[in-house]
Write a structure and sequence with these properties.
The complex is a heterodimer of chains A (116) and B (112). Chain A is mainly beta. Chain A has no helices and eleven strands. Classes of the chains: A mainly beta (116), B mainly beta (112).
Chain lengths: 116, 112
């Protein structure tokens, strides 16, 4: 069965440009998470979706970051006016969303973003 | 609020030696605890998790972890390390919400 996929796998952009990162979760998973992983750092939580709604956006670092999810499936993370400090690996994870705190998260391979 | 500390940034072991990676958490009650592994260029994969019950948890790839409430710890162990175990290991805690808090990770280096 297909796992979580993310695209693109790598993205190089110039400072000030907008980027869109895509996540395809495992089919049937209602919960979806975005994280940012900077070099030598742990995972920084960005946003959590349950279905199409985002009950927790507390981790978005600035108003340049936004995310949406449509049809309870694909999610897009958008970074506007990118800055060099946005360079990181952006990871997406999904889980069944059975409202259990102990759910295992299934991670995609990530998108490596480099802002020049 | 919940937090996780992985005190070791890097651990170096020889192939065949035993391994213990440390994880300490902070949470007011018994949390859900996880260990994930990340190989280079890959996403994270679950090794094992603790919910309740038996405090010694068995996972994949020969790993185990022990929950010690008195020490607020959930250390990961393996009796004999293989070169393929070289990776980044993350401890995570979930308590009171659906959002896990991850530690900063421990990089495991395996010498032949």
């Amino acid at each position: 069965g297909a796992g979580v996929s993310q695209s693109p796998s790598n993205k190089v952009t110039e400072k000030g440009k907008d980027v869109e990162l895509r996540c395809d979760p495992i089919s049937g998973h209602t919960a979806l998470y975005w994280y940012r992983q900077s070099l030598g750092q742990g995972l920084e939580f960005l946003i959590y979706f349950q279905g199409n709604s985002a009950p927790d956006k507390s981790g978005l670092p600035s108003d340049r970051f936004s995310a949406e999810r449509t049809g309870g499936s694909v999610s897009t993370l958008t970074i506007q006016r990118t800055q060099q400090e946005d360079s990181a690996v952006y990871l997406c994870a999904s889980s069944p969303g059975e409202r259990s705190e102990g759910e295992t998260q299934y991670f995609g391979p990530g998108t490596r973003l480099l802002v020049l | 609020a919940q937090s996780v500390t992985q005190p070791d940034i890097h651990i170096t072991v020889s192939e065949g030696a035993s391994l213990e990676l440390r994880c300490n958490y902070s949470y007011g009650a018994t949390p859900y605890l996880f260990w994930y592994v990340q190989s280079p260029g890959q996403g994270l994969q679950l090794l094992l998790k603790y919910f309740s019950g038996d405090t010694l948890v068995q996972g994949i790839k020969g790993f185990e972890a022990e929950f010690k409430r008195s020490q607020s710890s959930f250390n990961l162990r393996k009796p004999s390390v293989h070169w393929s175990d070289a990776a980044e290991y993350f401890c995570a805690v979930v308590g009171g919400s659906y959002i896990p808090t991850f530690g900063r990770g421990t990089s495991l280096i395996v010498h032949p």
